[in-house]
From TrEMBL:
Residues 229-258 form the 4Fe-4S ferredoxin-type domain. SUPFAM superfamilies: 4Fe-4S ferredoxins, Nitrite/Sulfite reductase N-terminal domain-like. It comes from uncultured SAR324 cluster bacterium. Keywords: Iron, Iron-sulfur, Metal-binding. This is Dissmilatory sulfite reductase beta subunit. It comes from the Bacteria. The keyword Disulfide bond does not apply.
């Protein structure tokens, strides 16, 4: 084993691998030198380089929160058809790239057999983007991934066909902060009313400045109730996001019997 080279202050000790190592060799060879690309059929396109190379791409939708078993199956297909290369798109589709046109149809057959629909390119409904919900967040009205599944189950055909006037990007999120749900059409499942404040508990349980700082619209103010420090909510300003509840359990936004959801749907202005 070679002795490690001497370290200096300029030695780079951390950071990602270079981009090239993750790219298919045909992509590396033609990087920045593509001539044009075209759609072959739903979920399949080809890029032509000035070098004369052709690179075929097959895209398939995934359930987003993938099991280890499914990721292994995807990696096996990458080994079999795409020289060991695959990538996930920002909407969690999986893409396989390779230079042999004859691999397209067998790969599509194998993808469909493991339940991954091929599509998601050009004028279709792209996979829905969603925020974290109960997986990572402490304020959701509901679980965004469940809503995403319900919607995409109903739009399965529109993912695999080319019947939209343009590509349609949907998102769903689970509160009105909408932390990651930017799209052409946004579906927000949110709470319906401002938090109820338990003043008796609040002064002993919560850090008041933390709860105040959590509110995205500055609707929470310090106050005194029964000679104790507490908080009040300006209900005209409150957007019922639930962020304060995440910081302060005495600002309960759910009710065990009376909680409901509001579903808001909006689209980009044309
Ligand atoms: S901030 Fe809102 S939209 Fe984002 S994960 Fe939390 S509850 Fe969902
Ligand atoms: S629910 Fe949201 S907007 Fe309303 S007070 Fe709490 S943090 Fe502020």
């Amino acid at each position: 084993m070679n002795a490690p080279s001497e370290r200096t202050w300029k030695t780079v000790e951390s950071g990602p691998h270079t981009l090239e190592g993750a790219l298919h060799p045909v992509v590396v060879k033609n990087y920045g030198k593509w001539k044009y690309h075209k759609l072959i059929k739903p979920g399949v396109m080809v890029h032509y380089g000035h070098s004369g190379d052709a690179l075929y791409t097959v895209r398939a939708g995934t359930p987003r929160q993938n099991t280890v078993d499914l990721v292994r199956q995807i990696c096996d297909l990458a080994d079999q058809y795409a020289d060991g290369f695959m990538r996930f798109t920002i909407r969690n589709s999986v893409e396989f790239m390779f230079a042999e046109e004859s691999r397209i149809d067998p790969l599509i057959k194998d993808l469909e057999e493991i339940g991954l629909p091929v599509g998601g390119i050009a004028n279709c409904v792209a996979p829905i983007a969603h925020t974290q919900g109960w997986l990572h967040c402490d304020i959701p009205a509901t679980d965004a991934s469940g809503v995403a599944k319900g919607i995409m189950d109903n739009l399965y055909a529109e993912f695999k066909t080319l019947e939209m006037p343009n590509k349609v990007r949907l998102s769903t999120s689970c509160c009105s902060i909408n932390c990651g749900g930017q799209a052409d059409v946004a579906i927000v499942v949110k709470h319906t009313r401002p938090p109820r404040i338990d003043h008796a508990k609040l002064s002993t349980l919560c850090e008041l400045p933390k709860a105040v700082a959590r509110c995205p619209v500055a609707a929470i103010r310090p106050t005194i109730v029964n000679n104790k420090r507490s908080l009040m909510v300006d209900e005209e300003k409150c957007i019922v996001c639930g962020a304060c509840f995440g910081a302060c359990p005495s600002m309960e936004i759910n009710h065990p019997e009376h909680s409901q959801f509001a579903i808001w749907v909006g689209r980009k202005k044309q």
